[in-house]
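To the team - nicotinamide-adenine-dinucleotide complex, inputs and output below.
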Amino acid sequence: MSSTIETDLLVLGGGPGGYTAAFRAADLGMSVVLVDQRATLGGVCLNVGCIPSKALLHAAKGLDDARHLQELGIEFDAPRIRPEKLRAWKDGLVARLCGGLASLARQRKVRMLTGIGKFSGPHALVMNDGQIVVFKQAIIAVGSHPIRLPFLPDHQRILDSTGALALPEIPSRLLVVGGGVIGMELATVYAALGSRVTVVEATDGLLPGCDRDLVKPLQQQVASRYEAILLGTRVVSAKASDQGVRVVFDGPEAPGPQTYDYVLVAVGRRPNGGAIDANLAGVRVDKEGVIPVDRQQRTNVSHIFAIGDVVGEPMLAHKAAYEGKVAAEAAAGGSTLNDAKVIPAVAYTDPEIAWVGLTETAARRDGIAFEKASFPWAASGRALSIGRGDGLTKVLVDPDTQALLGVGMVGPQAGDLIAEATLAIEMGAEPGDIALTIHPHPTLSETLAFAAEAYEGTLTELYLPRKKR
Ligand code: NAD
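Output:
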């Protein structure tokens, strides 16, 4: 017999957006039911995305560091990699974090339901086991799924990011289809583990959309380390067998057919808005599966909110968590608005690439005026001491108001360093504020101050002819 549960707030989806929204709403005194198809919280990010990939990238960094130390006269024997132990360590880390979230949910009395839920009306959700949740308000946080290339067969040797993170084995030859963030991060992992990696990217550069001066050091690193980078090239067909995958390419410089042990497909993600019968609740979903929302994350149905990947790009966990808090506070009667000025983005490649706010690519596309100053890490003692003089930090500034519009960085830890730039933009800082902030020496964080000083004309670490302003 099906049961009915009544609640103030239904949260559909338990990823970083959904669980943050559920916990915040519970803290604000609402009764909350949180539905997810997985038995664990954390969604794609924690279970099969950001966290396991960072765990494997940590292992990759250890291997790369050991290789780098050889140049300094410190030699190790060739590493022996035990994939099952690496897998168990990564899985243990994920399990520990999932356990932590489950206990946070219990402490807050958030009721968790495991299964697939779909709307059956503006105040009702039906679970695949027949249970019905009747809610006063709802937050949709159902995320996104990997895009499939329709001509690729369904086969265990053709992986999406989830399959690749399960680390079935270490392929001797791996093809990564898609030179975006996911493709390049997983290429970093498998190249370090010893796979011969080829990346095939349809556009004429890696990480499309990202400024070329930031991508250049990455492109140089991978050009020497990977078997091939095929730009302006597409996969047009593939035949999979137990022995491998035979792949046919198309493009001006496409090679002939090649055989790989595994093929990883990372050609983008698509929002899951089309899979929840949102129309039965009256919620509008566009043809891409995106649910449009206002600045309080409300859909066209005012008591139903949507957050995270399902409201569209950028599909980032930290954006989802922020939107989750906005929606929960609005649902609890608050006047919170989504007023984030900027959202930082990070590719956890080697080197890392991070940017926030305006990019040169977007400025040129949209005709936005900017001034730019850069600091090459070749002039940073700290960067050189870790063997990474190929990094770069740059600032983009509004020529009229001197406001900091954007920052881009490439180099180790760029993903951590970008947080300072994000705060600076949120606080309305000018380059002069950053330049006059004493940064610890010797650190990579100085590179932001040096780029700001380069803009101000006060940099002494380099000789830059004075610009008149
Ligand atoms: P993406 O859109 O970043 O990159 C996909 C790439 O595949 C593009 O460069 C595209 O040109 C290429 N491509 C498309 N079709 C192709 C084809 N047939 N052959 C060859 N290349 C092809 O998508 P993604 O890397 O799959 O990531 C998906 C989403 O997840 C993104 O929104 C991303 O921001 C997010 N994500 C972010 C992070 C992070 O911030 N570190 C990590 C993982 C995922």
